[in-house]
Each structure stands twice: as C-alpha cells, then as structure tokens.
Amino acid sequence: MADNSNDEVPETETNAAEGAYWRENIRLLVTLMSIWFICSFGAGILFRDWLDQFSIGGYPLGFWFAQQGSIYIFIALIFVYVIRMKKIERKFDLDD
Amino acid sequence: METQTLIYLFVGASFALYIGIAIWSRAGSTKEFYVAGGGVNPVVNGMATAADWMSAASFLSMAGLIAFMGYDASVYLMGWTGGFVMLALLLAPYLRKFGQFTVPDFIGTRYYSKTARVVAVICLIFISFTYIAGQMRGVGIVFSQFLQVDITMGVIIGMGIVFIYAVLGGMKGITYTQVAQYCVLITAYMVPAFFISFMLTDNPLPQLGLGSQLNDGSGTYVLQKLDNLLVELGFNQYTAGTKSTIDMFCITMALMVGTAGLPHVIVRFFTVPKASDARKSAGWALVFIALLYTTAPAIGAFGMYNFINQTNETEYAEADSWFKNWEGADLIAWQDKNEDGVMQYRAGNAFEGKPEFTGETGPSGERIVANAPNPDTANEVYVDRDIMVLANPEIANLPGWVVALMAAGGLAAALSTAAGLLLVISSSVSHDLLKSTFAPNISAKSELLAARAAATAAIVVAGYLGIYPPGWVAQVVAFAFGLAASSLFPAIFMGIFFKSMNKEGAIAGMISGLVFTFSYIVYFKLMAPDLNVAENWLFGISPEGIGVIGMLINFGIAIAVASVTAKTPLEIRKLVDSIRVPRGAGDAHAH
C-alpha cells in the first residue's frame, strides 16, 4: 500500500496539492487498516487464547472480539475515515 | 388464523410490494438499467447493499453454522463484515470517481486492453454463477418449507419473481426492491431473536443477552452453560475452536478480500452521486449488515441451548410439536438405537449421510430411517444446521405470524441477492462484451434490449443450477469468495494504488490467481473429496481459505510481469491521478 515512487516523476503532472492529499490519505489508510488488522486477526484469532482469560460480562474477551467486537470496530473505522477524509479534502480544496 | 394461511398472506403481500416497486421504478435508459441513474442516496444505497449482500446463506445458514461450530464460525462473522472496511477505504470511492458502469469497465479502461476486459468478464461470470446457484437453491428450499411445494417448483416461482423486477427495472428497480427486502428480512430476523433472548436472559437485546446470565436462577452465563452442556455430551467447548490458527486466519482473510472483490457488491457503489458518498454508503451498508451479523451469534447459541434442552433425554412421545414438524420436513430424524424411547443427543453423526425415511413409523411414532446406525456414537439425533433459524420461532413457541414473517424474510434475503447477481451478469454481457468489445456501434436502445435478454438468459441458467445444484449452499458460496479474492480484487486494488501496474501484469495476475484457486478448490471439493483433510492441504490451508494464496500469487506474478514489460502509458497515469481525487465525480457519468 506504500505510495508509488512514480508520483515524483514530472511526466505524471501530479500537482503539489494532489500529491500532498494522496500522501495524507495513505497515512490515514495505513493507520486505520492497522487497527482493522489488530482487532480482527489479532484480538479475534492470533491472541485469542491469551485474551480469553479476561471477560466482558459472560463473554470471554477473545471470543467477544471474534463474534461481536471487531464488527463494531469495523463500523467505527469506516465513519472515522469518512469524517477525516472530508477534512483532508477540504484542506487541499479537492472535495466533491 | 392458521399459520399456513398467515404464511401465504405475508409472502403474497411482500411479493406484491416488490412487484409494485419494480413497476414504479422501471428503467428507461441504459444508465438507469446499469447504475440506477447514479443518484441514489448513500443511506438508501447502504440499505440496498445490505440486502444485496445478505443472502440465503446469511439469513438461513449462518446462525446454524455458528450454533454447531461455535468459535470456529467467527471466520464468517469477521470475514463477511471486515471486507466492507476494505471496500470503503481501498476501492469504493475510487471506483465511483472513475464513474463507469461495471467492474470489467474499470479493469478494461485502466489496463487499456480489451483482453483485460474480457478476462475480467470471465472472472465475473464465474464468480456470479457459482454464487447464484446457492441463492436459487435457497429460494427453492424456503419455498418448499413454507409453501408446501417441491424445491423445483419453488425455484421456478422464485425465477418468475426475480424476472419481473430485474429484467423490467434493472439496477433502478433492484435498488428500491432491495430496500423493501432489507426491511422485511431484518424484521423477520430480529423479532424472534428479541423474544428468545428475553425468554432466556430477561434481556431483549440479543447482542447483550448472549453475554448475560440465564434467568433460571442458576446465575450461570449463557456461554458458560453452553460450554458445559456441550462438553458433557462429548462435543468441543462452544467458545473454543477446532480449526488451526493458520486456517482460521486464511479463511477470514479470503472472505474479507472476497467480499471486497465481489462484483455485485462493488457495482452498488457506482449508483451514488459522489465519491465521498461511496465511502459513506459503505459505512451505512455495514451498519445495516451488522444488525443481523451481531444477532446471529445469539440466535446460534440460544438455538443450540434450547435444542439440547428440548431433545436430549426427552421421551420422543413427549417431544414438542416442532420436533415432529421438522422431522416431517426431513430436517430432523431420530433413530432409537438403544430402544428406550428416549432421545439421546451426543457428539458424532447418528448415522451416515442424510436420513432416508422408509415411510414406516417406529414404536414411539417416529419416522423410521433406513440408514445404517453409526456404532461409534450413542447419538440418536440427526439435525440439519439450517433448522436453527427456520425452526427458531417454533422452538421458542412464538405465534404463527412470526413464523410467517420468517418465511417472507428468508425469501427476501435469497431473492435480493439473486437479483443483484443477475444484474451484474447481464450488464457485463450487454455492456462489456457487446457494447465495448464486439459490437461497438450498437444503439442505446438495442443495448438495453440486449441487457434485458442477457438477464433473462441468466435467470434460466441460475434456475437450472438451483434445481440441479453443484453442491451444498454454503459450500458453493465459499467458492465464489476465493475466486473473487484471487482474481478481481488484486486487479482493482493495483489499478488504484500501483500506477506502474500495466496490462500485461494485470492479465497474467488475474489468470494465474483464478487458475490456481479454481484448481485447488475443484481438486479437493470435487475430484478427490476423500483427500480433503488438513494433512494434504497446502500449508494446512483448507479450500475455503486458499483464495488468500491465490491472491498472493496474483500480486506476485502481476508485479513480476509488470517489471519486465512496457511502462503504463501517460494517459493511464493521468487517469489514475484523476480517480485518486474526489473532485468531479458528479459529472463523470455524463459521458
């Protein structure tokens, strides 16, 4: 997901605002996708056994992440992205 | 009123509603047929996407899978929701900004090649038909359970209904019928769940009820109780898994990436006005989907708990009427191995395969099965997984109108997905194969006619696959995800994020990903099902999860080929720049 080095090649005629906008977008993407990975694959699968020693109500914690928690976090991630992207777009005057 | 009369009433009323909407929102132009005119509100589109997405498998089979698999079924819960994060963040806004009608449109234009477009159409048709076969089978099963017709007749009725709104209304008709179908299916799913959760835990919210204590005064939590019950009967603990970590990981990933690559889901994001609306819309879709997906684990666990309580160590003669009803529908069977007249439910199959009833009744009044008993287990009960949702209202003793609602909901789920799939097939044939590849001079009017003809043909093929299904519903669906993950997703992703990906790379990647995944699945599922065990799998990855390896192969080959072939032309680099910024998406449909 790393940015493409060709962005700097002048022939693509990427203007400065668009380049900066894209870099901020990629930074936000990497952050949110990391959370996405940690909550589902991390908490729900890889570290599930360790997390299961804790519990939320009657849910073992790892099991909760796998069957409930990660879904709530997914929703939150998308809406955070919607809001942050709107801000970034306005900042570079590229919004639709 | 009789439950059966109520079912006819509810199902009939919901069909009348869908057909009414289809006539009201009839498509007049190709743009309306392909992308509903491109002006759908993001919340409305989210709801339509949710209905499109949640299939007969989600509605009927998922809670059952969770009930019988416990923690292992988390792959479906995370996999089928996590893909929407990828869609919202990685694909949807850019595809909307690109502003064409179909997925092969994007691939064909971005990779400046008719070959790439045709390869994408082949991938798309492959994926859609494997998926739709399961849906039509689902339609047939629901009809036969609730309307007292056989499965073939059920499939044919379903084909007729889908024909009316998919062929007449195109994407526009489908969008608004799907909104109605979402409302029907989510009500049908939630109502019994509220009741059952409240009856067992005093908490009507199933999401919270599942983490609560049982209200039988024992003070034990639902999941704890279920763990104990299952272990006592010789099953695995409900909250512990049996799948290996690598397999859990790969299946979840394949389902996520597959979701993000499924063409009938992607095209739904072409119908909103702006690129930023595509992001919003993916968020709303996930909200509407999560309502059902966070409820399913509760239905599964409560269903299993009720099932064990009401069957195990219960005298057959004393069993509730639901048991006998569903025994009559071939979904439950009891073989009194120790001849004590009492049902024992234990781990293991009571007998080999599906029950074959002899037509006679035994000493307790049960339907006798001809299958040879399995001597390795004391289990006497055969139960079909789908029963957890279908029989839920009856198991919990809910009134007839809830059962009727359930029937309407199940049909809504299967029909909405079938319609969405039919549409991507027909638009690919008419738009990508005819208009863009083989007959570029075709008039808009003939293109619309071709789209309708293609939709009709697709319905006939889908109906045939529904009547003579290639496999069990959920199994066939898993196929589609692996193929989508290994073929379409990488091509679209690299089209947006790797400017130097060229046509040679993309085509080589798509073909190798598809061929690898397809052969692996066909080998283990169809050619050598006896060898389909963990020891024989590549890295211990089951056919359900192999799409991940297919995807990596696709990425690897594409990048390798692209690095030794010609650079992407300047105008394509400009195109990628333009889809990366949201400005100007509103008029993109004008061309």
Q: Would you write up a description of this structure?
A:
The complex is a heterodimer of chains A (96) and B (591). With 96 residues, chain A is mainly α. Chain A has one domain (17-91). Helix content of chain A is 69%, strand content 4%. Chain A has a two-stranded antiparallel ribbon with strand order 1-2. In chain A, a hairpin with a 2-residue loop joins strand 1 and strand 2 (59-60). The longest helix of chain A has 31 residues, at 16-46. Mean pLDDT of chain A is 86; it is low at 1-12. With 591 residues, chain B is mainly alpha-helical. Chain B folds into 2 domains: 3-303 and 398-470, Hydantoin permease, CATH 1.10.4160; 316-394, no CATH class. In chain B, the strands form 3 sheets. In chain B, strands 1-3 form a two-stranded antiparallel sheet. In chain B, strands 2-6 form a two-stranded antiparallel sheet. In chain B, strands 4-5 form a two-stranded antiparallel ribbon. In chain B, strand 4 and strand 5 form a beta hairpin. In chain B, helix 7 packs parallel to helix 21. The longest helix of chain B is centred in the first third of the chain and has 51 residues, at 151-201. Chain B starts with a helix and ends in an 11-residue tail after the last helix. The relative contact order of chain B is 0.18. The mean pLDDT of chain B is 89. The chains are: A mainly alpha (96), B mainly alpha (591). Chains A and B meet through helix 1, strand 2 and helix 3 of A and helix 5, helix 10, helix 11, helix 13 and helix 23 of B.
User: What class would the helix/strand composition of chain A place it in?
Assistant: mainly alpha
**What name does CATH use for the topology of the largest domain in chain B?**
Hydantoin permease
Number of helices of chain B: 23
Strand content of chain B: under 5%
